[in-house]
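Here is the promised in-class demo. Please do not try to memorize the tokens; focus on the logic of going from shape to residues.
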């Protein structure tokens, strides 16, 4: 399948590749079972325990993690589930199973967490924690804090025939003429359930597109008005900063620079979202109408 503009091929779990298109012009990243990968890659350094997606996780590396992914191999251990490693020389994802392993868990951790980390650490893209769809063929982001309504809103757009770019995490690529959305993976999770990607979405874009607009969702009372206001200055920066997918301290300065420059180029709007599902059609209409005017 095409994930973040790369072909992802699960070598040892053929069922994870079924009915998923690939593109011969793109780089192929193989996901390969290898029970000796940690020893072979010498990933002997282990971080403190980190909670992640309902599990306990360690980062693994050969030396100081600050250059991981760009200059040397690294990995993560999801305790009692599986361990994933990035072989930087061969550009492959290696893994070995633990007692609670399942193919679906491999797919989740690989696509949702590990591969986005690989891309961010290699400085290929910045990964944003946003929902994203196309409106009239244009890439639009929905930004919000956890449980802020972006999955529900994304789901509503999908139900009305819009193309999916991202359910949860999206790549952003800077080019000379602007900033571009790199679609993530063809799954959507309209509910909050841990370690699942949700259902497969046929109407998924694999085309990199310029970012047209970002909507920051603001929860308001059920009887409040739906309003859209353009953000300026520091508020634009915050919409990107608080949507960052990872928060490594050693990347803080470069993230700051990236988002500051992005805020000068991309239009960002605040939209009030009445916390009432019956008013979701009103929110949808407001965004579609607004997006067609800008």
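The designed amino acids, position by position:
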């Amino acid at each position: 399948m095409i994930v973040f503009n790369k072909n992802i091929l699960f070598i040892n779990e053929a069922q994870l590749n079924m009915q998923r298109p690939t593109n011969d012009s793109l780089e192929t990243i193989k996901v390969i079972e290898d029970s000796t990968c940690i020893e072979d890659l010498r990933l002997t350094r282990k971080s403190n325990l980190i909670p992640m997606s309902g599990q306990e996780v360690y980062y693994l590396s050969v030396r100081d993690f600050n250059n991981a992914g760009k200059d040397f191999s690294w990995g993560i251990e999801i305790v009692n589930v599986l361990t994933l490693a990035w072989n930087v020389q061969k550009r492959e994802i290696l893994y070995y199973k633990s007692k609670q392993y399942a193919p679906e868990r491999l797919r989740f951790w690989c696509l949702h967490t590990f591969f986005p980390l690989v891309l961010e650490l290699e400085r290929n893209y910045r990964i944003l924690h946003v929902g994203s769809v196309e409106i009239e063929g244009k890439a639009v982001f929905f930004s919000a804090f956890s449980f802020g309504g972006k999955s529900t809103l994304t789901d509503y757009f999908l139900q009305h025939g819009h193309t999916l770019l991202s359910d949860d995490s999206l790549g952003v690529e800077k080019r000379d003429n602007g900033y571009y959305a790199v679609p993530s993976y063809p799954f959507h999770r309209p509910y909050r359930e841990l370690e699942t990607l949700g259902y497969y979405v046929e109407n998924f874009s694999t085309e990199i597109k310029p970012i047209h607009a970002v909507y920051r969702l603001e929860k308001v009372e059920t009887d409040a008005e739906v309003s859209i206001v353009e953000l300026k200055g520091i508020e634009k920066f915050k919409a990107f900063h608080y949507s960052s997918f990872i928060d490594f301290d050693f990347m803080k300065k470069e993230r700051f620079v990236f988002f500051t420059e992005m805020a000068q180029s991309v239009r960002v709007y605040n939209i009030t979202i009445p916390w009432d599902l019956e008013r979701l059609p009103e929110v949808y209409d407001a965004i579609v109408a607004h997006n067609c005017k800008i």
